[in-house]
Amino acid sequence: MTGGRYRALRATAYGIAALLLFCLVWELVKAVVPAAGVHVLGASVLPRTDDHAMPHVWDVVARMGRSETSARGADSVLVAMGKAGWFTLRVALAGWLVGVVAGMALAVLMARRRLAEAAVLPWVVLSQTVPLIALAPLVVGWGGRIHLGAFEWQRWMSVAAIASYLAFFPVAVGALRGLQSPTPAQTDLFRAQAAGWWRTLVSLRLPASVPYVVPALRLGAATAVVGAIVAEVSTGAPGGIGRLIISYAQSASGDPGKPWAAIVAAAALGLVAAGLVGLVGLLLRRYRYAEVSS
Amino acid sequence: MSQMRLTRRTAWGLTVAATAAALALTGCSSSGSAAAPAASASGTGGSGALTPVKLQLQWFTQAQFAGYYAALKQGYYKDEGLDVQIVEGGTDIVPQTQLANGSVDYALAWVPKALASREQGAGITDVAQIFQRSGTLQVSFKDKNITTAAALKGKKVGNWGFGNEFELFAGMTKAGLDPAKDVTLVQQQFDMNAFLAGDIDAAQAMVYNEYAQLLEAKNPATGKQYTADDFNVVDWNTEGTAMLQDAIWANTDKLKSDKAYQDTTVKFIKASIKGWAYVRDNPEAARDIVVAAGSKLGQSHQLWQTNEVNKLIWPSPDGAGMIDQKAWDQTVAIALGTKNDQGATVITKKPDADAYTNDYVTKALDELKAEGVDVTGSSFKPITVTLAEGGN
Q1: Closest chain A residue to B193, measured at CA
Q2: Which of A9, A23, A173, B10 has the maximal Cβ count within 10 Å?
Q3: Do B16 and A115 meet the contact criterion of CB atoms below 8 Å apart?
Q4: Taking CB atoms and an 8 Å limit, are A251 and B213 in contact across chains?
Q5: Distance of residue B59 Cα from the nearest chain A Cα, in angstroms
Q6: Is the pLDDT of residue A148 over 60?
C-alpha cells in the first residue's frame, strides 16, 4: 500500500513538473522568438509571439480570476470554466456510456460469429471515416424531429450521441481483440470440460479481454470528450466548453487571456475524464496482469 | 442437422442486420442519465392554447438577435398566442437547412446564402427583411489610405470565404479591379489578430462585431485602445454592392397549403418587429435581455452591437421588414454575376417568384400601425457607445 501511495505521489509530482515545464517553454518561446514570428521565404515557420497571439501565462491565470464581463452578477472566468466543464463532462460521460455499451455488445457479437465479424467490422471502421462536421448537422436535424409524447430531443442529446459515436470505436475494436486473445490451449481446455459458449465468455474471454479493454475505455473517454467539445462547437449546444471556446474566441483581439482560459479548461476536462476511467481500471485491477496498448 | 445449422445461421444473419440497424439508430436512442438543463427559452408556456414556434438563429445568442429575445421577454409573442422557442446556431448549423428539413418553423438567414440553398432545393421564402442594410465593412489602418474599393489595388485583402465574400468581390469588380490579379487575397480567421499584426491590409468586418473587436483592442504603440480615427472603412452600402442580410425565412410549401401556418407567420413577424421597435427605443434594456438570455459577450460589446444593428434596421421608410425591390434586385444581380476567387457565383439562375413575398409583413405592419407602434422609426437616433477594453 505504501508503495502504491508513493507511486501516486510520484505521478502527481511528475504531472505538476510537466505543467511547469510547459509554462516555462511557453514563456521561453515568447522571449526568444521575435514578436512577428519567423518567416522563411514568406512562409511562416514559427508563429507570432506577441501578446495577442501568445499572452503571458500569468496574464491568462490572472484573467481566470477576474469576472467574465462587467455584467452584474457575472461569474469569474474560472467559475464559468468549471460550470462549462461540469456540463460537458456529464454529456461526454453519457455519450461514453452509450458508446461503451454499444462497443462491448458489438465486440461480443463479432467474437461469437465469424459472419458477424465479417459483416460488421468493415462498417465499424467505415463509421470513423465520416467527418464529424458532416455528421453533426445531420444528427441535429434528425433529433429536431423526434417527439415521443412528453419526450423531446434536446441539443445536448445530439452532442452525447456524437460523443458516443466516437467512443464506441476503440471499445469495439479493443474488446474484440481482447475476446479473441485466449490461446487455443485455453479454449480447448474449456471445450474439453464441456463448457458452453456463454461459460467460456464469462469465465475466460471477458477476464482475458480486460488488459485490452481498459486502455480502450481510456481512449474512448478521451475521444468522447473531444467529440462532445467538437459537437458543441459544431451544433451550437449551449452550456459547455465548446460554446465557451467559441464565445471567448470572439474577444481574442481585445482580451487575449480569455480564449486561452477556455482552452485550458478543455485540456483539464480531458485529464479529468481520463482520470475517472483510470478508477474503472483500478476496480478491474486483479485482471490486469499485463496491459496492452490499443 | 445441416438444415438446423442453416436456420441458426439465418438467425445470426438477422441478428447482425438488426444490430446494424440499431447502430444506425444510436442517434435516436435515449442517451442516458446526465440530465443536463435544456436551453429552451420558452419559459412562460403552460397554456395549451399557445402555438409552439421554433426560430433558428444563425449564431449564438447575441444582440444581433436582440429583437426576438426582446419580443420573447416582453411577452409580444405570447400576446399573439405563440410559444416561441429560440434555437441557437452553431458553426455547422445552416439555418436554411434546419428550416427546409422541418426541424424549425422559421429561420434567420442572409439573403444570398438562402438563395443558394433555394437553388439546391430548399423550399424557403423570405417573409420579412429585418436588416434593411448590409453590416459588412472592409477595414484598414488609416495610413494605408483605403477609403474606396478602388484603393484596394495591390493590397493584401482579407476575406472570410464561405459565401461571406461576395460584396467584397462585387465591390472590387465594380471598381475595375480583377480580384484574382490586382489584389493579394488572404483567407481571414474570425478574429482580427491577423489584421492587427499587419498580415492583412484591409480586413472584412461586421460593423456590429469584428469592427467593435478592433476598438476594444489595445494599441501597443500608445498603450490605449484603438479609436475610430485609427481606421478607414469601406462600406458596401455606399459602394453600391451591398447585399441583403438577416431576413426571416419561412417554409414555402407550408405557406401555400397550411392556413394556420400563414396566420402564425403574420403573428410571428408582427411580434418580432414589435420586439425590434422595443430594441430601438430601449437599447440598454434590450442589451440586458440578451445578456440574461445567456450571451457570454461583454457588456459594452453587446450594447455596441445592439446600437449598430438598430442602425441596420432603422429608419425603415416602408416599414420594418418590408423587402425593398431595388435592394432585392441588387442582391440577386450580384449573386448571379459576381465570381469569387474560385470562379463560383452564389446562384446560377434567377430565383423564382416564391423566393420572397411581402404579403405577410404587410399584414403584420398594418396590424402594428393600428396598435400605434412606430414601424418606420423615422425619428430614430443611434446612441453613442463607448467600448471597454476587451468589450467587457
Answers
A1: A253
A2: A173
A3: yes
A4: yes
A5: 8
A6: yes
Pick left, alpha or beta for residue B223 (phi over 0 → left; psi -120 to 50 → alpha; otherwise beta). left
DSSP of B246-296, one letter per residue?
-EEEEEHHHHHH-HHHHHHHHHHHHHHHHHHHHHHH-HHHHHHHHHHTT--
What does the block give as the cell for A198?
456463454
In terms of Cβ atoms closer than 10 Å to its own Cβ (0-12, 13-18, 19+), residue A114 is exposed
What are B266's strand-pairing partners? none
Question: What integer pLDDT is reported at residue B29 of this predicted model?
Answer: 36
E strands in chain A: 38-40, 43-46, 147-148, 151-152
Measure Cα distances from B259 to A56, B51, B242, B254 in Å: 60, 13, 35, 8
Residue B8: per-residue pLDDT: 47
H helices of chain B, where?
2-24, 66-73, 76-79, 95-100, 111-119, 166-174, 193-196, 210-216, 236-239, 252-257, 259-281, 283-292, 299-313, 325-337, 359-370
Distance of alpha carbon A138 from alpha carbon B27, whole angstroms:
10
Handedness of CA B275, B276, B280, B286 (dihedral sign): positive
How confident is the model over B162-216, as pLDDT tens digits?
888 899 999 999 999 988 889 999 999 878 888 998 889 999 999 999 999 999 9
pLDDT score recorded for residue B41: 40
Nearest to A141 among B103, B192, B196 (CB): B103
pLDDT digits (tens, 9 = 90+) for B287-324: 999 999 988 888 899 999 999 999 999 999 999 999 99
What is the rounded average pLDDT for all residues in chain A?
86
For residues B345 and B336, is the Cβ–Cβ distance under 8 A? yes
pLDDT confidence of residue B183: 93
Please state the length of chain B. 392
Q: A137 or B55, which is more confident? A: B55
Please give the angle made by the CA atoms of A102, A107 and A109, to the nearest 5 degrees: 95
Instruction: State the span(s) of chain A assigned CATH 1.10.3720.10.
Output: 57-287
Q: CB–CB of B34 and A145 under 8 A?
A: no
Q: Which CATH superfamily is domain A57-287 in?
A: MetI-like (1.10.3720.10)
pLDDT tens digits along B329-361: 999 999 999 988 888 889 999 999 999 999 999
Asked whether the predicted pLDDT for residue B25 surpasses 80, the reply is no
The verdict on a CB contact (< 8 Å) between A115 and B102 is no
Contacts of B33 in chain A (CB under 8 A): 94, 97
Cell numbers 455528421 correspond to what residue? A135
What pLDDT does A292 receive? 57
CB contact under 8 A, B103 and A136: no
Backbone angles phi, psi at B134, to 5 degrees: -85, 140
B294's grid cell: 445567456
Specify the pTM: 0.82
Q: Does residue B99 contact residue B128 with C-beta atoms inside 8 Å?
A: no
Give the model's pLDDT for residue B238: 93
C-alpha cell at A175: 474488446
Q: Which are the contacts of B248, defined by CB distance < 8 A and separation ≥ 6?
A: B106, B107, B108, B126, B127, B128, B130, B268, B269, B272, B321
| Type of residue at A47 | P
Contacts of B60 in chain A (CB under 8 A): 236, 238, 243, 246-247
Burial label for A42, CB within 10 Å (0-12, 13-18, 19+), is exposed
Residue A13 corresponds to which cell in the numbers above?
Answer: 509530482
